[in-house]
Design goal:
Elements: E1 18-22, H1 38-43, H2 45-51, E2 55-58, H3 86-98, E3 102-107, H4 117-124, H5 130-133, E4 137-138, E5 161-165, E6 171-176, H6 191-206, E7 211-214, H7 254-265, E8 273-276, E9 295-297, H8 309-325, E10 331-333, H9 342-345, H10 354-361, H11 369-384, E11 389-393, H12 414-417, H13 462-465, H14 472-484, E12 493-494, E13 503-507, E14 513-517, E15 530-533, E16 546-550
Parallel strand pairs: 1-2, 1-11, 2-3, 3-7, 7-8, 8-9, 10-11
Antiparallel strand pairs: 4-6, 5-6, 12-13, 13-14, 14-16, 15-16
Helix pairs in contact: 6-7
Bound molecules: beta-D-glucopyranose and calcium ion.
Calcium ion is lined by residues 29-31, 33, 35, 37.
Length: 551
C-alpha cells in the first residue's frame, strides 16, 4: 500500500468529516456493462477531490445475488466480479488515500445473502445441526409444520418467515428474515458468527479501510430465549419499545458485540471509525456512539423535520447536545440510498407523508422542483455550518431530483416487488449518475445504464454544471471548500430572533454566522461579509428558502 498523508491526520478525522456516499453500481461504469464498478470510482477520484469531501462511504460491493441491491451479501471478504476484484479495491484505496480521501465500507451483520456458503450448508444440513444454528430456523406450527412459526412480518412485507425444502425433498423448517427472503437473519448467539465478523473487520482494516457503516446495527440480537418468537415487526419507531426490551430491535445485549468490535478497531493506527445505522429512539443512541463501541451513530431526525424552522431547530439542539454530552460528534443526513432525494421531498407540501404520497402518485407525481432544490440547498448549507459530520449522497451535489416514474418492469427494489399494491420503491434515488450531456448513459459509462435515466437528467449532468456559476455543483464545491476553513471546534451558539421564529441563526467560534430563512418574507442580514448564499439576495435581504454564511 502506498504511503499517504492527510491534511487532518488525527485519529479524530471522522468527527467533522464530510462523507460522500457512493452507491457503487450507479456511480461510474468503466467497462460499459451498465453496472458501476471500482475502476469507475478510480476514474472519478479527481472529481471527488475537487468536490472537497473528506471520505467516501461505499454501499456494498460484495458478491451478491442483488435481491436487495447488494445488502444480501454472499461473501463478506470479496468483491462482486461485476464490480471488480480485490486488486481493483487496493488500487481504489490507494487512489483515494493519495488525495487525502478516507474510505468507509458497509458491513451487513444482521443477515447474509441466501447464496452465502453458510446458508447453503444450513439448507443441506439436518434440523438441529450446527450449520442451522448460525441462522434462525424454527419448526412451523400446525399438524405438518405448515403454519409459519409466528406472525412476524418482514420489513419489506409480507412474512418474516420462509419455509425450506429439506434435503430429503419434503417441506420442512422455516427461517427468519427481517428483510427479503434472500436475506436470512444470522443467529448472533452463535460464536462462529461472532468470530467471522471479527475476521471480516480485520480483513478490510488490513487492506487500509478507514471505517465502517454498520447496517441495521440495532437488529442483531432478538428475544428468542425459551422458545419465544417475535410476533410483529417493530422497525418503525412508533411501535419499537423504548427501554431495550423490544423483541427485535435495540436490545441491550447488542452492545456487547460492538464492544468486541471496538477492541479490533483500536488495534489499528489510526483506530478504525464506525457509524451505526440504528433507527432507535434518540435517548437510546448514545451507547452505539460511545468510544467503547462504534463511536458514531446516524441521526436521521432531520428527515422528519421537513421545511419547518421549529422542527429543524429542535433537531439541531437535541443532537448537538446529545453528542456533546456523550463525547462524540453528530451526523447530518438529508439523503441516502433508502430515501427519496431531499431536493424532491422538499418540493412537496410540508406535512405530507412522503412515502404514502409516492406510493399513490407514482404515475403522475407533481413536485415543485424549483422550491425543492432551493430548500435542499439552503438546508444542506445550514447543516454544513454546524458541528458534526455531514453525510452526502451521490448526485445531491448536482441537485438531482428523485426519478419517480421508473416503469414497474424496470424496478429492482425488493420493497417494490414484495408490496406490488403499495408501490414503494427506492430505485428512484439509485439511478446511475449523469456525467455528460450526451451518450448512451450520459457519461455513466461507455455502455447502457442498469436503471433507466430520465431525459431531464441531461440538465443535471456534471458536464452541464461544471464551471457554471450558479450551478448546484459549483455551490457544493464552494460550500465544502469554505467549510474546510471552518475551525473544527465543536461549538455553536444560537442567535435568538424573538420576532421571527422562521429564522435559524447561529454563530461559530471563528466568527462565522449562518442564517436560514424558513419563512415566506425576506429578512434582514446580520452585519458582516457575505461569503456564501444558496440563492441570490432579494432587494438586499435574505429571501425565503435561502441560507447565507456571513463572516
Ligand atoms: C440498508 C437498506 C437495506 C436494509 C437491509 C438498510 O438499512 O440501508 O438498503 O435494504 O438495511 O440490509
Ligand atoms: Ca461495469
Amino acid at each position: 500500500m502506498s504511503e499517504f498523508t492527510f491534511l487532518k491526520g488525527s485519529e479524530d478525522w471522522w468527527r467533522q468529516a464530510v462523507v460522500y456516499q457512493i452507491y457503487p453500481r450507479s456511480f461510474a461504469d468503466a467497462n460499459g456493462d451498465g453496472i458501476g464498478d471500482l475502476q469507475g470510482i478510480i476514474s472519478r477520484v479527481p472529481y471527488l477531490k475537487k468536490l472537497g469531501i473528506n471520505a467516501v462511504w461505499l454501499s456494498p460491493f460484495y458478491p451478491s445475488a442483488l435481491a436487495d441491491g447488494g445488502y444480501d451479501v454472499d461473501d463478506y471478504r470479496n468483491i462482486d466480479p461485476r464490480i471488480g476484484t480485490l486488486d481493483d479495491f487496493d488500487q481504489m484505496i490507494d487512489a483515494l488515500h493519495a488525495e487525502g480521501i478516507r474510505v468507509i465500507v458497509d458491513i451487513v451483520p444482521n443477515h447474509s445473502g441466501s447464496n452465502h456458503v453458510w446458508f447453503q450448508e444450513a439448507l443441506k444440513s439436518p434440523k438441529g445441526s450446527p450449520a442451522r444454528d448460525r441462522y434462525i430456523f424454527r419448526d412451523g406450527k400446525g399438524e405438518h409444520g405448515e403454519i409459519r412459526p409466528s406472525e412476524l412480518a418482514s420489513h419489506f412485507g409480507p412474512s418474516g418467515w420462509t419455509r425450506i425444502i429439506e434435503p430429503d425433498g419434503t417441506p420442512g423448517q422455516w427461517y427468519m428474515h427481517l428483510f427479503a427472503s434472500e436475506q436470512p437473519d444470522f443467529n448472533w448467539d452463535n460464536q462462529e458468527v461472532r468470530d467471522d465478523f471479527l475476521k471480516t473487520m480485520r480483513f478490510w482494516s488490513d487492506r487500509g479501510v478507514d471505517g465502517y457503516r454498520i447496517d441495521v446495527a440495532h437488529a442483531l440480537i432478538k428475544n428468542l430465549a425459551n422458545g419465544h418468537l417475535p410476533e410483529r415487526q417493530s422497525y418503525d419507531l412508533s411501535v419499537m419499545k423504548k427501554d431495550g426490551s423490544d423483541d427485535l430491535f435495540d436490545r441491550d445485549e447488542v452492545h456487547d458485540i460492538y464492544k468486541s468490535w471496538r477492541k479490533i478497531f483500536n488495534e489499528y493506527d489510526p483506530p478504525r471509525m464506525a457509524v451505526a445505522e440504528a433507527w432507535v429512539w434518540p435517548h437510546r443512541r448514545p451507547p452505539y456512539a460511545s468510544t467503547e463501541e462504534l463511536g458514531q451513530s446516524f441521526n436521521f431526525d432531520m428527515l422528519g423535520a421537513g421545511w419547518d424552522a421549529a422542527k429543524v431547530r429542535d433537531v439541531v439542539r437535541l443532537n448537538l447536545k446529545t453528542a456533546a454530552d456523550n463525547g462524540t460528534s453528530t451526523t447530518w443526513v438529508l439523503s441516502n440510498h433508502d430515501i427519496i432525494r431531499h431536493a424532491t421531498r422538499l418540493g412537496l407540501p410540508n406535512d405530507l407523508d412522503v412515502a404514502k404520497w409516492y406510493a399513490k402518485n407514482r404515475f403522475d407525481p407533481h413536485v415543485n422542483v424549483e422550491q425543492g432544490l432551493a430548500r435542499a440547498k439552503a438546508l444542506t448549507q445550514a447543516l454544513l455550518a454546524l458541528p458534526g459530520s455531514t453525510y452526502l449522497y451521490q448526485g445531491e451535489e448536482l441537485g438531482l431530483q428523485e426519478h419517480l416514474t421508473i416503469p414497474a418492469e424496470q424496478m429492482q427494489d425488493p420493497q417494490f416487488f414484495r408490496n406490488p399494491d403499495v408501490g414503494l420503491s427506492r430505485d428512484g434515488c439509485r439511478v446511475p449518475l449523469p456525467w455528460a450531456r450526451s451518450g448512451q448513459s450520459l457519461g455513466f459509462g461507455p455502455g447502457g445504464s442498469h436503471l433507466p435515466q430520465p431525459a431531464w437528467y441531461v440538465d443535471y449532468s456534471v458536464e452541464a454544471e461544471d464551471g457554471f456559476a450558479g450551478s448546484t455543483l459549483e455551490f457544493y464545491r464552494r460550500a465544502l471548500s469554505l467549510r474546510a476553513g471552518l475551525v473544527c471546534e465543536e461549538k455553536w451558539h444560537e442567535v435568538k430572533h424573538w420576532f421571527n421564529s422562521n429564522v435559524l441563526h447561529f454563530k461559530r467560534p471563528n466568527g462565522w454566522q449562518s442564517v436560514t430563512n424558513f419563512g415566506s418574507k425576506p429578512v434582514k442580514l446580520p452585519k458582516g461579509e457575505v461569503i456564501l448564499l444558496s440563492q441570490p439576495l432579494v432587494g438586499g435581504k435574505l429571501g425565503p428558502n435561502t441560507t447565507v454564511w456571513i463572516k
